[in-house]
Design goal:
The complex is a heterodimer of chains A (121) and B (131).
Chain A: E1 9-17, H1 22-33, E2 38-47, H2 49-53, E3 60-70, H3 74-84, E4 93-100, H4 115-120
Antiparallel strand pairs in A: 1-3, 1-4, 2-3
Chain B: E1 7-8, E2 11-19, H1 23-32, E3 37-44, H2 48-51, E4 62-71, H3 72-85, E5 94-101, E6 103-106, H4 110-130
Antiparallel strand pairs in B: 1-6, 2-4, 2-5, 3-4
Classes of the chains: A alpha+beta (121), B alpha+beta (131).
């Protein structure tokens, strides 16, 4: 039996401003880059811009995107998320990439429901 | 259009899991030791309550996860400072770990990039003479 565990993978974490549409970036990853192993969660950021802008509110709201990608495409996806998250602008967030030792493959079923329709209806 | 990404290397990620309400203390300790900032989110912890028996009721299952990207040369100092300030030697108070990042990227002002580039060029001849 072929071992389904993948070894050559990278995890990219992208912390972006809550003002940006993280769902749209995730859809871009799916449609343009065929990366399905990604997700979003909310967080708050402290330091840098948050320190000056909203210290009274206890931090600035952020969206965090996590994507597991093949090592061969890691730099490409890294650049894509850098652009999509507008991280070239000051106080828009940051991103980083790390090696992961093992990951299971994610195979989507052949007939997929329209995920966008499910999410917005 | 492809933009040039300024990549930071020799960076570490410190992840600290503490009881809810303790994250600000952790961030303050980290900033005092040189960290620039942190990202915090909520989580739920399982495990330590069962182990501590009656004392387990004093442990809050709601946790805060603090993630900080710090430079390699400051990482150990920040790690130790957080450990002491957050009292992570006490059972049930929390857990932290540090991992090496392959690279990181954020907005870096042009002046700093220029300064780093010129610094690198100045250092290069020294390296070749040594080698």
């Amino acid at each position: 039996m072929v071992n389904p565990v993948r070894h050559q993978q990278r995890m990219i974490t992208c912390i972006i401003s809550a003002g940006l549409d993280a769902q749209k970036i995730l859809r871009g990853l799916k449609d343009e880059k065929q990366i399905f192993t990604a997700g979003i969660f909310h967080a708050r950021g402290i330091g840098g811009s948050a320190y000056y802008r909203s210290s009274m509110a206890g931090g600035q709201e952020k969206n965090v995107i996590i994507a597991i990608v093949p090592a061969a495409r890691a730099d490409e996806i890294f650049s894509y998320l850098y652009e999509a998250g507008e991280l070239y602008k000051p106080h828009y967030g940051m991103m980083y990439m790390e090696k992961i030792d093992r990951a299971t493959p994610l195979n989507l079923p052949d007939e997929m429901p329209d995920l966008d329709a499910l999410a917005f209806n | 259009m492809s933009r040039e990404v300024v990549v930071l290397t020799d960076v570490k990620l410190i992840t600290c899991i503490v009881q809810r309400g303790e994250a600000d203390k952790v961030v303050k300790a980290a900033q005092a030791a040189g960290a620039q900032g942190a990202t915090i989110y909520f989580a739920r912890g399982i495990g330590i309550q069962d182990r501590l028996g009656v004392l387990g009721i004093t442990i809050n299952a709601e946790k805060e996860v603090v993630k900080m990207v710090v430079s390699g040369d400051q990482a150990d100092r920040i790690f130790e400072r957080i450990y002491l300030e957050a009292g992570l030697n006490i059972p049930g108070r929390g857990f932290m770990h540090m991992t090496t990042l392959e690279k990181a990227a954020t907005y870096v002002p042009h002046e700093i990039v220029k300064k780093l580039c010129s610094h690198g060029q100045e250092e290069q001849p020294e390296e070749t003479t040594d080698g």
